[in-house]
Amino acid sequence: MLVIKLILAVVVIGALIFGIKQFNQHCMSRFGHAFFTKRAFYITATAIAVFTVGNMWRRSSLEGHGDTLNGIVLMVVGVLIACWLIYENVRRTNSIWGIVGSVGQLGLFSVLAWVWLPLMAIALLCQFLALASAKPVYVVNR
To answer: What is the pTM (predicted TM-score) of this model?
Structure first.
């Protein structure tokens, strides 16, 4: 049963990747605009990160009986970044393809950003530790 589940998972992931590539190629040939790009991923990851930090700030202010406005402002900024991405997609395509592509783009990239952001923080920490423990190199023969 486990083998069947694993095979099914691989088939679903493969079909998802194939569908995304086909959708991207169709939109590129029809409109000259690709939805699933690195730029779009970074914008979505930024929107998610700003929204999440705003939500954490709002929650901690609620628990401490403080001002929640700062967290709400950050949450609105995160939503505005996502709305700007949707607007750009609709402007470069048409309304139907733009909205369908934006929903798929934000849905997929949101899940990927939840995985990517903590891994990137760990990688940055490891890079910092590697640089902090490096010894200086002196050139003797010039």
So the answer is: 0.77
